[in-house]
Design brief:
The protein is 41% helix and 21% strand. By secondary structure, it is an alpha+beta fold. α2 runs antiparallel to α8, α3 crosses α4 and α7 packs across α8. The radius of gyration is 25 Å and the shape is elongated.
Length: 430
């Protein structure tokens, strides 16, 4: 095997796009979109004895000011096609660490896009499932520090847990696995919840929706300019969708349904079958009253959120989705966005749909459990990654960076909370 320090961009892109563990952050476009976050990057690889490319890695380099030092990062780790090739993993991991050292970095961080162990769909570890703990052991043998198996958001540079839906099967089978799919779609259709492709000029809708959530949780939201960079850099790989509600149309639809149900009741004789219809009529009347009371009875498709997706090869990543909460339970905007995207990208040849991030906690009392419960309702698989690894080139300066980073992170969180937390009653869905 041979370690390659300068893989040609197109050669790198072709290998990475076809790799089963690829990710959009492993593509050269990611560096461009994140500028000026990285001051330099390298496209690295491994060739076999016949000169065939059998592994790739995107290594980015950052400079820290206080303390003054440089460190390197391989987002989502390297790409290889065979996770059982331990010799390749060992060779690549060792050479990547040494390359970062040669570049003058204090340490190299890597968070491989490799599942740790197999889980059931409910998140429990599957008895007799696959186990990739040997990869962690190989990294440690190569001199890497493993940073543990934390839960939650914000404790790792990239999330350690996600839900992935297999699309490489008949569409009818996929829909059948989605909880209450037909019921929710019917409710959204009745209430004029619609999804359509969005344009670059409408990226502010995503930014505005995220801004509302930031008021509740106290984080710094992404601006429209941030999304514009990704939109421009990834080009045709970007799929952007907007969800809208037309409350006036919803009122007309529900009133029509009420009239039809009342006419149907007049000819029915079975009291047991009549009672659920009466309850549904009453519920729709209350919805109509609430819409009017909130002065929402306007004949206009009002944006209620957006979804930003990147598709590389046949993999889809739900990079970000934010929808404004409505006070009415039956307007399921987040569900509508996912269903529209799933069907559109399925038609475009997608084989794997990544919901991009859950906390990893299976405790119903966890504040993010609802997000996990919502995402797993689509029938996807619970994925736990191996976590983060640091190849330390200078232990003393690395320890200095860790202490400084922890202090700055705490300060940044406090400042963001103070300046962004304004309205505790405003919330959104992701």
């Amino acid at each position: 095997m041979k370690f390659i320090e300068n893989v040609e961009t197109e050669r790198y892109r072709q290998f990475a796009s076809a790799c089963p563990i690829n990710h959009y952050v492993k593509m050269p476009e990611y560096v461009e979109a994140m500028k000026p976050g990285f001051f330099a990057y390298d496209l690295l690889g491994v060739e076999d004895d016949e000169g065939n490319l059998i592994g790739t890695a995107l290594m980015v380099h950052r400079r820290n000011t206080k303390p003054s030092l440089q460190y390197s990062y391989i987002p989502r780790g390297f790409n290889i096609n065979d996770l059982e090739n331990r010799e390749l993993i060992r060779f690549f991991a060792k050479n990547l660490g040494e390359f970062a050292k040669k570049k003058g970095s204090v340490f190299l961080r890597m968070d491989p896009d490799i599942a740790r162990v197999e889980h059931e769909k409910n998140g429990r570890i599957k008895e007799g499932g696959f186990d990739h703990e040997y990869i962690r052991e190989i990294f440690e043998e190569c001199g890497y520090d493993h940073l543990g198996y934390p839960y939650g958001y914000g404790v790792t540079w990239l999330h350690r847990y996600t839900m992935q839906l297999n699309l490489d099967r008949p569409w009818k089978e996929i829909k059948k696995g989605i909880k209450r799919c037909s019921q929710y779609q019917s409710k959204n259709e009745l209430r004029a919840v619609k999804v359509r492709p969005g344009t670059r000029d409408e990226l502010h809708i995503l930014a505005d929706s995220q801004d509302q959530l930031s008021h509740k949780l106290g984080f710094k939201p992404r601006t429209a300019a941030y999304w514009e960079k990704f939109y421009d850099t990834y080009g045709d790989a970007v799929h952007y969708y907007i969800v809208t509600i037309n409350y006036h149309e919803a009122i007309l639809n529900m009133q029509k349904k009420i009239d039809e149900d009342e006419a149907h009741l007049k000819v029915m004789k079975d009291e047991n079958k009549m009672e659920p219809i009466r309850k549904n009529i009453e519920a729709m009347r209350k919805e109509i009253e609430e819409i009017k009371a909130l002065n929402l009875d306007v004949d206009e498709d009002i944006p209620y959120g957006a979804k930003f997706i990147i598709m590389v090869g046949n993999h889809v990543w739900n990079m970000n989705m934010y929808t404004k909460k409505t006070s009415m339970y039956n307007f399921r905007c987040a569900f509508a966005l996912h269903m529209y995207a799933l069907e559109e990208l399925y038609k475009a040849g997608a084989k794997l749909y990544d919901f991009e991030g859950i906390s990893g906690s299976l405790d119903p009392k966890d504040p993010y459990y609802g997000m996990f419960d919502f995402k797993r309702s689509f029938g996807g698989d619970f994925i736990e990654y191996l976590g983060e690894f640091d190849y330390v080139c200078s232990r003393s300066r690395y320890n200095l960076w860790k202490a400084s980073s922890k202090m700055k992170s705490s300060l940044r969180h406090t400042v963001n909370y103070i300046f962004n937390h304004r309205n505790p009653d405003t919330s959104a869905e992701n």
